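Lab notebook, bench 4. Still working through the backlog of constructs that have no structural model yet. Next entry is a single chain of 268 residues. Request: give me the structure tokens for it.
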Amino acid sequence: METTREVWWGNYTMEVGASAQWEFPRLHIGVQRLAHEWVIAYETTESENDEGPWSFSYGSVDLDQSQYSHIARYVFQTTDEQLTVLPLPADRAVVSRPYMQFTVPAGEETTIFVGTPLWFALAGVPGRHVFDIPIRRPSDTWFGPSTREGELAYASRTYGRLNLENITVSPYVAITQVHIHNSSSTPLLIERLNLPVPFLSLFQTEEGNLFTEGVTFEQTEGTSLTKFHIEEAHWALEEGAKLIALPRQNPHKGMLIRAFGALKQQGF
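Model written out:
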């Protein structure tokens, strides 16, 4: 039986033997609760419309496993009737490009808004997720000055924007406000930006939009590394906004990361 929900995440009450299905443009997921196990099945598909609608259905029938190419079983002493579905940030950093490359002059600062892809996570035990998968798996990319120095990351499908109103709101993307402060004595060219989203929490507005805390990148003199600081998400913490997912990894103070794909010391 197909049911209507405003958002695809949240708490679902599941009877023993019942099954539920979520259908996204590129991902289909089926879940069945048994007395001592959760059966999770999924199938990835091709779709020309990545931003298409999603649907949810529930019924007191066995899961039709023939519809899925991947089946997993998670065994518990007893299963809880509450199944929690969470959106999570990507499990590694996401590299984004601004809509048009720009330069931050020496001593100046600016703000850019970046959209990053979300993962679909299931928690069969309250407070602990047991399964997660990208709703739209992004492409792999390498971020670093050479093949020996850097990290494996994901490439974002969306462009960073200087104005929030130019960001397309999507139930499959989280938005992050990135503040860039150039404390060095030379201009800073921004062609690619490496956002470490596993360190960020997720919040939900009353309208169901998803965002993370804001972050600050401060570029200082004489180094290719950048100071990384997590801020409060003050730009979107409107009345009614709430925390819905904690970060995958715990950040620590004074972090230095490689944030910019083109860090060029330019002269005028």
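Notes after review: The chain is about 0% helix and 45% strand. Confidence is low (pLDDT under 50) at residues 262-268. Flag for follow-up if needed.
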